[in-house]
Amino acid sequence: MVHLPRKFYTRPDVVQIARELLGKQLITRMGGVITSGIICETEAYAGATDKASHAFGCRRTERTEIMYDRGGTAYIYLCYGVHSLFNVVTNIEGVPHAVLIRGIIPVEGIETMLQRAGKPEVTKNFGIGPGKVSKILGIHYTYSGLDLVKNPGKNNEPAIWIEDHGVEIPPSQIISGPRIGVDYAGEDAMLPYRFSLP
Question: For 2-180, CATH number?
Answer without folding.
Answer: 3.10.300.10
